[in-house]
Amino acid sequence: MLRMKSKKLYIETYGCQMNFSDSEIVVSVMQGRDYQITRDAREADVIFINTCSIRDNAEQRVWKRLRELKAHKKHNPGLRIGVLGCMAERLKMRLLEEEHAVDLIAGPDAYRSLPELLSAAASGQKGANVLLSEEETYAEISPVKYNSNGVSAFISIMRGCENFCSYCVVPFTRGKERSRDPETIVEEAAALFRKGYREITLLGQNVNSYHWAQEDGPVRFPELIERVALVDSALRVRFATSHPRDVSDELLQAIARNHNLCKAIHLPVQSGSPAMLKLMNRKYDPEWYMNRIRAIREHIPDCAISTDIITGFCNETEEDHGATLSIMDRVGYDHAFMFKYSERPGTLAARHFNDNVPEKVKSQRLQEIIAKQRELSLKSNQKDVGKVFEVLVESFSRKSKAHLSGRNSQNKVIVFPKKGYKPGDYVEVKITGCTPATLLGEPLEAD
Ligand code: SAH
Ligand code: SF4
Ligand code: F3S
């Protein structure tokens, strides 16, 4: 019997966890049309690049990659290249005009139409679908975990963002905020657990505003995470990202009373200066933020807190910068992602404010912030030496096959000797040492 050979798809993803989760949707859509995923770009019939626009350097990396692929296409004229995600949405037709090697573009809400866009591209037409939707959540599409450790997975629970922080491109690239049917979320979590996954992260730009309307009253985020936690007590549940404006005591109580709701909250502060927060349109001030930190400490004393920080935003003075260093100290973050402000065309800040902090000053301030966080992370890790944590093993350690690497509830990476354990196991580990990035330990002997 003659069987059509399936075609090969290679996909590369940039940007946030949500984009990685979207790539799993894309693979699912494409597998339904007889495409098989490959890890080798050289043997691909189709290459998708799922892109990010959050900062200029994120886009520059993609342009560089597209230039490499253009050279590759010269030797392989049948190859089709698609640009997906936020950059496709932001640049639209300009992307096709500026990089001729690109055959199609698809925005974040257009992934169901990829097979049709590809058919058009096969006949030599350039395809584009950058329509944003008010309803699309890909709720019933089962993501294909093509690049997974088999232990931890992401589940998208909502899409879009309407917060319009003045520096941020996401509301423009991802459109209106919409939540996904809770039944489909719980089902996906249960299916992952049955397949052996032991940790899921619920994803959204602002998960606290999750809202699903139904007859007997809406389902909100605290109720949703408790429902997911009930899937099985051996399934760890995390979430990202929370907006400080909307972290409710109800959410903190839900985390406190469920062992498997992880004791780690990512709460991006962006800046410690009231003037900067106002200009950023973050809708809280440092006092509000510190009040939320106190509420976290009160309800969940062992909770880890991490953050995002932007330095060098418009008009930022040395004093504003000092306020950021100071709030870092006051909170004592366990971990932080730290960025130089990058002006994004079309945002409120690009249209109305001046990107007037010199690059050199931005770099200097970023170095100071990174040094401060290094200190805080080390201090936080040193406090853990001597403690015992339940570690969910994810993989072998990067440095040694004789060691395993996993995380505790607080999301800290813990490396320990393998003994008889394997990925997916829960292991009680006593911490014996640390670096700023990692805890080192010994498994407690099982009786
Ligand atoms: N929705 C999440 C974060 C999304 S983007 C939230 O609101 O917390 C991740 C981080 O990128 C942001 O928290 C911010 O720190 C950073 N970021 C966003 N836009 C940026 C820009 N224009 N320049 C530099 N960093 C930016
Ligand atoms: Fe961007 Fe603000 Fe939305 Fe986060 S909450 S995605 S920073 S606009
Ligand atoms: Fe980037 Fe889009 Fe995520 S801009 S950070 S990929 S939502």
Describe the protein's architecture and organization:
The chain has 447 residues and is of the alpha/beta class. It has 3 domains: 123 residues, Methylthiotransferase, N-terminal domain (Rossmann fold, 3-Layer(aba) Sandwich); 232 residues, Alpha-Beta Horseshoe (pyruvate-formate lyase- activating enzyme), CATH 3.80.30.20; 56 residues, Nucleic acid-binding proteins (OB fold (Dihydrolipoamide Acetyltransferase, E2P), Beta Barrel). The protein is built from 14 helices and 21 strands. The strands form 6 sheets. A 6-stranded parallel sheet has the order 2-1-3-4-5-6, sandwiched between helices. Strand 17 and strand 18 form a beta hairpin. Helix 12 packs parallel to helix 14. The termini are far apart. The model has no long low-confidence stretch (mean pLDDT 96). The chain binds S-adenosyl-L-homocysteine, iron/sulfur cluster and FE3-S4 cluster (F3S). The site of iron/sulfur cluster has 10 residues, from helix 6.
Brief rundown of the structure:
The chain is α/β, with parallel strands linked by helices. The chain has 14 helices and 21 strands.
Key structural traits:
single chain; 447 residues; alpha/beta; Rossmann fold; pyruvate-formate lyase- activating enzyme; OB fold (Dihydrolipoamide Acetyltransferase, E2P); six-stranded parallel β-sheet; five-stranded mixed β-barrel; 21 strands; 35% helix; binds S-adenosyl-L-homocysteine; binds iron/sulfur cluster; binds FE3-S4 cluster
- Percentage beta strand: 15-25%
| Chain-averaged pLDDT | 96
Structurally, how many domains make up the residues?
A: 3
- Poorly predicted regions are none
Q: What ligands does this structure carry?
A: S-adenosyl-L-homocysteine, iron/sulfur cluster, FE3-S4 cluster
Briefly note the structural class of the backbone: alpha/beta
How can the largest sheet be summarized? Answer: 6 strands, parallel
Query: Tally of extended strands?
Result: 21
* Major sheet strand order: 2-1-3-4-5-6
CATH topology of the largest domain: pyruvate-formate lyase- activating enzyme
**Share of helical residues:** 25-40%
Distance between the termini: 58 Å
- Integer-rounded radius of gyration: 23 Å
Look at the structure and give the CATH class of the largest domain. Answer: Alpha Beta
Based on CA inertia axes, which overall geometry fits?
Answer: globular
